[in-house]
Write a structure and sequence with these properties.
- The protein is of the alpha/beta class.
- It contains 14 helices and 17 strands.
- The strands form six sheets. Strands 14-13-12-15-16-17 form a six-stranded parallel beta sheet, with helices on both faces.
- Helix 14 links the parallel strand 15 and strand 16.
Length: 425
């Protein structure tokens, strides 16, 4: 009986069960003990078994209705101790506490809160008022996870290698895995990705030497999804290798990932300025009067590479351009290329074209992602421009030569690499 009453108290006003050790047992539990003893000692039949619980429930309701100072009640004391002016104290909200009453150990009322998704399930965004102060039960748990106040939180740490697009894949895969397992990602403060993106939900550290102690797990293929890579205990600290170029690692958390890849303000302003200049050059009033298609042409080191790269052909470029011209009006193509002479020679005639000349790749990415649609060619840099832009994205269907070492790094039909809904040509 006493445990049932205590559960009612902790569920009061829609509040989900919060597992904290109360400073003192409320008088209502003592009353419940008394009724419990009476019920055990009486043989008055089923009537007593109905009446006494009803009286108990009535007493609980009366207690809350006529309580003059709710802040004196221990359940509110817990919240008042933990939350003051929107902040939380150092007490760990995620520990499993139990309530001890008269020598009886009442088990914790909820599971240990470790994952943000679990937190949202267990603690709804319920608000109640005590003395005019609104309290949210979910905020402390979410803040605890995000600020790593839970000592039981474990980490994944990417090993950045390759170019800009490669490192984006490596971070994205680690982020998706961390989100799925209730872990956090560690990234160095001086990393290029941190200089370019805001990375709001990433653990940014000046010193990442701790990552050297993490357990390493390697993928089977660089450009395909490896489900066995994720078969590890989330109570371990992990480093995943190597390139991790598959959207399947982070698809379930794509909206959260896009938030991480928010450009820093100064980069975004420079990119917007370039877009405005382009629109004015073609005598358009604003971006609403034009359809902008970003084009990234990758050649350079991939031409005649022994590893087996296929380079997008002139036929592909023509077909992609014609696709957007036939579907949209007032199309302007904003192009970035490692080989401007080749690109100019192979772009279809009678097209509105603007070439980006910025040597900074972060400006190139930021500018092209402000377009409406994308023509990608090959490579991870091109891939991320398409993904961040959204809209319609075309890609060259044969990025690797058959029988080459590179071809073995992809899945059979390249579907693990190319994003769902993109248009292969």
């Amino acid at each position: 009986m006493d445990q049932a009453i205590l559960h009612i108290l902790l569920d009061y006003n829609g509040e989900k069960k919060v597992h904290h050790q109360l400073k003192q047992a409320p008088i209502i539990v003592c009353f419940g003990q008394f009724l419990h003893i009476m019920l055990q000692r009486t043989n008055s039949g089923p009537l007593v078994g109905i009446v006494i619980p009803c009286l108990t429930c009535a007493f609980v309701l009366i207690f809350f209705v006529f309580q003059t100072d709710v802040n004196k009640f221990p359940i509110f004391e817990v919240f008042n101790d933990q939350i003051k002016n929107g902040s939380i104290t150092k007490r760990n909200w995620t520990k499993n506490h139990s309530v001890i009453f008269k020598g009886k150990n009442i088990k914790p009322l909820t599971q240990k809160v470790r994952y943000e998704s679990t937190t949202k399930t267990l603690l709804k965004q319920t608000k109640f008022t005590t003395k005019g102060m609104k309290i949210s039960t979910i905020t402390p748990a979410i803040i605890a996870v995000r600020n790593n106040s839970n000592n039981n939180t474990h980490f994944v740490c990417p090993v950045f290698m390759g170019g800009f697009g490669n490192t984006m894949f490596q971070l994205a895969a680690h982020f998706g895995v961390a989100m799925s397992k209730g872990m956090r990602v560690i990234v160095a403060n001086n990393s290029e990705l941190n200089r370019v993106f805001k990375l709001e939900d990433i653990d940014i550290r000046h010193n990442t030497d701790i990552c050297k102690t993490f357990i390493s797990r390697g993928e089977r293929q660089n450009c395909a999804y490896d489900k066995n890579l994720l078969k590890f205990n989330s109570f371990q600290n992990i480093r995943l290798g190597q390139y991790l170029q598959s959207w399947k690692y982070f698809y379930d958390f794509r909206s959260q990932l896009k938030k991480q890849f928010t450009f820093r303000d100064h980069l975004l302003q420079e990119a917007k300025s370039k877009i405005v200049q382009t629109v004015k050059r073609f005598n358009r009033g604003s971006t609403r009067d034009v359809t902008l298609v970003g084009v990234h042409v990758r050649r350079g080191d991939m031409v005649n590479h022994k590893f087996g790269y296929n380079i997008a052909t002139p036929e592909y470029l023509t077909k992609a351009v014609q696709y957007f011209q036939s579907k949209y009006k007032n199309v302007v193509f904003i192009i970035s290329s490692q080989d401007i002479p080749w690109t100019k020679a192979n772009m279809p005639n009678n097209t509105n074209v603007e070439y980006l000349t910025s040597p900074k790749r972060e400006i190139i990415v930021a500018t092209l992602t402000l377009c409406n649609h994308t023509i990608t060619t090959v490579g991870s840099f091109s891939w991320w421009i398409g993904w961040l832009t959204g809209g319609e994205v075309t890609y060259f269907k044969w990025p690797a030569k058959e029988g080459s070492a590179l071809r073995k790094q992809y899945s059979k039909d390249f579907s693990d690499f190319y994003y769902p809904g993109w248009i292969g040509m």
